[in-house]
Amino acid sequence: MRSGVFDAQGAGLHYEVRGTGPALLMISGAGGDAGYYSGIAGILSDAFTVISYDRRGNSRSTGRSETPMDLAVQAADAGALIDGLAGGRALVFGNSGGAIIGLTLAALHPEALAGLIAHEPPAVNVLPDGDPGRGFFAELAALYERGGAPAAGRRFAETTRGEGTYRWPGDLWQRFLGNQDHLFGTEWPGFAGFLPDEAALKSVPFPVVLGAGAEDRGTYYARPSIEIARRIGVPWVEFPGIHMEFLRDPGRFAAAVRVLATQMHSRAGDVPDLWEGTAR
Questions:
Q1: Taking Cα atoms as reference points, which of 262, 229, 241 lies closest to residue 121?
Q2: Distance between CA 23 and CA 85 in Å, rounded?
Q3: In the chain, fewer beta carbons within 10 Å around the N or the C end?
Q4: Cβ–Cβ under 8 Å, residues 144 and 120
Q5: What does the pLDDT look like over 232-253, one tens digit per residue?
Q6: Where are the domains of the chain?
Q7: 2-275: CATH topology
Q8: d(CA 166, CA 250)
């Protein structure tokens, strides 16, 4: 693994690169830390150049702000990393808020993507009127206003199925705790207001797949993936496990990502250039 700091619009983004092969950018959700993907990135590095990063203002990256952050800024950061580290085009995987950023990136900068896997975007605004899931972001914003990051963070963990049943890496957990005010105070409004640009997503020239974990059926953060897939006419797949299965069982989750990313890279039957040539 090699790491560094990438300059993007006034922020220094900590990044990590593992492996060789087609570029695969992995965008993390709440907490915005590359450490979420350390295990899965190592497993996939035999077939892909896996790029992960701490999102702007999180963990080892700079660029923290007191004002709400537009999702377009988050998408531009991802696009800049693809341009600077992946030659201008990459497969993209995003989980949770990272899936929302991936969908925003696909709509605003389609030239940067070779394919998108959006895993459990909590896009509650696509849920039906009256669905209790639509109130999630407002509930936590109110908790943050009254009790600060500890109160909002506890409630967040309570709503995420499977949390507390496995151990996070200690260094990742400590960095996450330091990111909570940035999450709830700066990033939250952008995630709360997200609606997918259906027209733009329908017209992208690369494959898009939405998906959710088998153990997350019925949750506010899994059900939107089904509705988005239906609205833009793309496949939906069931992943193994829970919201952050890549932390609980990176090997199992990597197997699912490997299949989808390989199919996207080969475009369903086309032989990749790296397989052409004379047998030795």
A1: 229
A2: 9
A3: C
A4: no
A5: 999 999 999 999 999 999 999 9
A6: 2-275
A7: Rossmann fold (3.40.50)
A8: 12
